[in-house]
Write a structure and sequence with these properties.
heterodimer, A: mainly alpha, two-stranded antiparallel ribbon, B: mainly alpha, 2 strands, 1% strand, globular
Chain lengths: 288, 310
Amino acid sequence: MDILITGVILGGTYALIALGLNLQYGVSRIMNLANGEMLVIGAFAAFTLFTVGQVSPLLTIFLVAPLAYVLNWLIYRIMLRPLVNRAKNRGMLEVDAILTTFGLSFVMVGIMIWAFGGDYFSYSYLARPITVFGDNYGLNRVVAFVCAAILCAALFLWLNVSRAGMAIRAVAVSPENARLVGIDVPKLSARAFALGGAVTAVGGAVISTFLTLDASTGVMFTMKALIIVIMGGVGDVRGTILAALVLGVGETFVASVIDPGLTLVAAYALFILILLFRPQGFFGRKPT
Amino acid sequence: MTQGDWKNLGWGAALLIVAALLPLTGDGYLISLGVSIAMYTVLATSWALFSGPTHYISLATAAFFGIGTYVMGSGIGYLPYWVLLPIAGLIGGVIAALVGLATLRLSGVYFVIFTLGLAEMTRQAVTWYQNQTGHKGTYVLTDLTDPDIYWQLLGLAALVFLLGWAIGRSRLGFALRIIGDDEDVARHVGINTALSKIALFVVSGATAAIVGAMIAPRYIYIEPSTAFTPMLSFQVVIMALLGGTGRLWGPLVGVIPFTLLWEAISSSFPNQTTLLLGLSFLAIVYLLPGGFVGLYDRLRGRAVKRSALA
């Protein structure tokens, strides 16, 4: 029970991060390997504002979100749009996108190390216990989970109910056909990419309340987010959330029963099972 | 073999002999630089054998390298050095085959994601195993000196070049080029795409493992964090792409300048290596899409066109 709740709480924050990546990969077709760095930037903003001005991380997200949105929009327009235009097919775009976002991720890590040093950073926010079902948990973890859950729900509703959300889902299913019904695919791709980055950065601010991070931890989160997106199915919000919870519980289980140093091994074991048995994701249909 | 083939072979042999003379200078710094260059040449060339024609970016080099290092480290007390080299290659090849079987049947993305974390995952597993058994690192004590390692790596490089040349002329090499152009077409003309990709991935995995085993005596003391440095995978990718994967000799052209640049940066600005790596990735995508080889081909194409017009 203890493992289950800790795992679900961890999975909830993973879900938020993976949703960001899923928007970028599922809609804009950019496999963004610099996604984890966006998370670290969000976390770093929360850390700085908290230590300097005692600003609550829950307020910081209202600042982080628009800034990350603009930053990611610029990245897409300046760096990635030319690649989309020059790619002859999806495979070529994938290779270019992987190399570019890798480069971007290294540049961001390099700049962060240069500017702030490579130390771990963490702060103490709401670090008091709270009792859930008879066991004690950190209040900051619970708050982070609730925060992530609200954001995931809002995103899910927006994608499924609003007109803009429908357009985004249409692009995710088929960019070619979306154009035929009058959707401005390039514009929407840029917005989806920006939105994905903003969601991830917010996830970073949330996760920084209870995890210790440093400038180069981003790639770890990118990996986990990628595994979650693949497990849940590309472009599938329900699948992503379910996969994130499965990963959170699986990791917590391995960490507490076997060894805390084996979290990535646990993630990979899940990943291999999915690749072998359901490569199309939890809710995906087999391609005909 | 045509006359051109003999000529290339002659040039290759001559270069190899010149390179093999390097340790005679007796300069320790030059020799250690030579070891780095030879090591990266083998790694980048074998990487390009698989990733060049297929366009699948493998980030698993560090994992295979580390596995090779550990095979040498844990076996040197029981078996002679020369037996351990092929064993390292065999183990690396088997693991590559398993990874390939799990991921290469699917699209390229799965492969990239999987190889991205493979080194880190193996490192975690090895660390855990060592904690369980209660010893931290392993000593590799041999009487091999830097020149010995250098010559061994050169020999391996020659082997990889010969193998690459043979594959390029074989049905397998042809099949891989078709897969790289269009995987659906390849499947329709009856190529077993998964098997071809796995075969080449096994070659590059086994080679990286042998390199790891050869380098192990140089470390003397190995532990998971030195054997599985994730940076290695990225360095190899950058070097190969910088040179260009279109030709067999392409990666070599990238390895030499990049190794020198890397040495210079990491000795004077050790914290900026990550930034350098990132900028190199971006430079390749935007400025040098085909690497130096692509640039050379374009310039030559332009020259040919001009002379045809004149």
